[in-house]
Specification:
Layout lengths: L1 H16 L2 H7 L12 H33 L2 E5 L34 E5 L6 H35 L7 E2 L5 E4 L2 E2 L11 E3 L2 H7 L10 H12 L12 H8 L2 H31 L5 H26 L7 H7 L2 E3 L2 H28 L12 H20 L8 H24 L1 H6 L4 H16 L5 E2 L7 H19 L5 H23 L4 E2 L15
Parallel strand pairs: 6-7
Antiparallel strand pairs: 1-2, 3-4, 4-5, 8-9
Helix pairs in contact: 1-3, 1-4, 2-3, 3-4, 6-9, 8-9, 11-12, 11-13, 11-15, 13-15, 13-16, 16-17
Length: about 525
């Protein structure tokens, strides 16, 4: 009895908790960057999880109790000589008492050891019935939790469902004529984010945060107000002409690059715009900065989307705003992630630009000519988040902050490394070696991040990039399995050991000795290796 009830306990608890994060943080009352978590869903999930876990525990405890009682029916004891004292002569329903050495007190200590029945008064039938009932209830809780999980996954898919009924000549699904269906959400695709705006209000309130350096923030705002790129993003006729001769796989890969970049920029626009609106009364200076950054991100997203239209494709950004799923991050994690994304974006754009300036024959789109000034926007945005982090010492000090900083560094680096190697044809078309490009960008980003984060990965360790290359190989195997046309259940079985290997490699990277750095809790300059 203990085995099935124990399994029921673990399955019921696990299945009830799996959908918890999605329902609590992603299911929101009103789609949009300013949407809040739905308290009703949070309460619902907490209640279901509690009930299911309680049923599982009760099922486990009753089953274990029944098992313990059942073991008393057949216990190794000393056999009794019928001449000395027959077992039948014991009083009816008298429980056999056990001595400290494990022998039976009423029985004579003679004969060899064997399994003999004891006269034990136990409500055997009732225990079995109760255990069976609770096991059935526990099994029902598993089914309920599983259905809740499946329903929740379906709800998540519905948030990004689009009316795609046709495909164009490149194989892209079309939402309608001239409008491309957005790529499906995966763990590697750009996401839309929302956060706890009330906590942000406290962070940027001069009443609650004594570390706010308003002079520095005002200087940052004045820098954004100058709008150095106001007249930079002006298109010319070369865009349409260049699109006409980019064809085949190159055309498809370039469109995918434009879509991913556009989605990432538009995600930043939505988040910054909402923060600017929410903080206007709390801290007008910070609100202005977020609003000005949203201006930059909107300009970037619009420019990329217009470039997509040269290929007779575009994204319906208004539709995405209302129908794409939003991922909730606490402000602390938003600051880590956006700082890294802005800085890594800077190094990506400037590296591509410098390479193509040296090799103009490989510049197949005029878009790349805009990357130099473009990346300066990314750099200024990152500097602002660096200033924010300095106003929050608790985000840059302590073992937990070091752990989270390392986690986000690894997450951003691994995501970029895997994404770019899936689309290495794009970088090869630009004349870049995908592996060398990624390693250069990661090293430079890591060096920049070390100026503010309390700990960063040691990307110059001899085994760091070989492990990243192993992840690329395993990720390619996952892609091959996903494209082999097998049933989904079979694919999941085939993918399981590969995913386990990837998780193991990621954990190795995560727990490798980091570089202690930062500016708040260390006075000396961090020692980094430059290559």
């Amino acid at each position: 009895a203990w085995l099935p009830t124990t399994l029921l306990y673990f399955f019921s608890s696990t299945m009830s908790l799996l959908p918890l994060n999605r329902l609590q943080y992603s299911t929101i009352e009103e789609q949009g960057p300013g949407a809040r978590r739905n308290p009703a869903n949070a309460v619902l999930v907490a209640a279901v999880a509690t009930v299911v876990a309680t049923v599982g525990v009760a099922s486990y405890n009753l089953g274990a109790a029944h098992t313990a009682n059942s073991l008393q029916l057949f216990t190794p004891v000393q056999t009794v000589s019928t001449a000395a004292r027959p077992v039948a002569s014991l009083p009816l329903r008298q429980t056999v008492g056990r001595s400290a050495v494990g022998t039976s007190a009423p029985l004579a200590a003679s004969g060899s050891g064997a399994y003999a029945p004891e006269a034990v008064a136990l409500p055997q039938a009732t225990s079995q019935i109760n255990s069976g009932v609770w096991s059935i209830v526990g099994f029902g809780s598993v089914i309920t939790a599983a259905l809740l999980f499946v329903w929740n996954r379906m709800q998540g898919k519905q948030t990004v469902a689009m009316a795609a009924t046709t495909a164009n000549k490149e194989g892209f699904e079309m939402q309608r004529e001239g409008v491309k269906k957005a790529a499906a959400d995966t763990i590697l695709t750009p996401r839309f984010y929302t956060t706890d705006f009330d906590e942000c209000a406290q962070i940027f309130s001069k009443e609650f945060n004594e570390h706010l350096d308003m002079k520095e923030l005002e200087a940052v705002r004045d820098e954004f107000v100058k709008d150095y790129n106001q007249n930079h993003f002006v298109r010319n006729d070369n865009f349409k002409a260049a699109a006409s001769w980019v064809d085949g796989d190159s055309r498809k890969i370039f469109v995918e690059f434009l879509e991913r970049s556009c989605t990432a920029e538009f995600s930043g626009f939505l988040l910054y715009k909402e923060l600017g609106r929410r903080l206007k009364e709390i801290n007008p200076v910070v609100a202005d900065i977020f609003t000005l950054m949203s201006r930059d991100e909107a300009r970037h997203a619009g420019f990329l989307n217009k470039t997509m239209s040269d290929f007779d494709l575009a994204l319906d950004l208004g539709f995405l705003t209302k129908h794409r799923e939003y991922t909730f991050f606490k402000p602390k994690f938003i600051f880590y992630a956006t700082y890294l994304s802005e800085k890594i974006g800077y190094w990506r754009y400037i590296t591509i630009y410098r390479h193509l300036q040296k090799n103009p024959e490989q510049q197949f789109s005029p878009l790349f000519q805009y990357f130099e000034n473009w990346c300066q926007d990314e750099n200024r945005h990152g500097d602002f988040f660096s200033a924010i982090l300095k106003t929050q010492p608790k985000m840059l000090q302590g073992w937990d902050s070091k752990l989270w900083c390392r986690f986000f560094c690894h997450s951003v680096y691994i995501t970029m490394y895997l994404n770019d190697h899936q689309r290495s044809a794009f970088y090869e078309q630009c004349g870049l070696n995908t592996t060398e490009f990624n390693q250069h960008v990661i090293r430079e980003t890591n060096n920049t991040t070390a100026r503010i984060f309390p700990a960063v990965p040691n990307v110059n360790a001899p085994d760091y990039f070989p492990k990243m290359d192993q992840l690329v190989v395993l990720n390619n195997k996952l892609a091959e399995i996903g494209a082999n046309g097998s049933p989904a259940a079979l694919q999941n079985v085939q993918k399981a050991p590969i995913i386990a290997q990837m998780v193991g490699i990621m954990l190795d990277l995560m727990w490798a000795t980091p570089i202690e750095c930062g500016t708040l809790d260390r006075e000396e300059t961090p020692k980094l290796e430059y290559v």
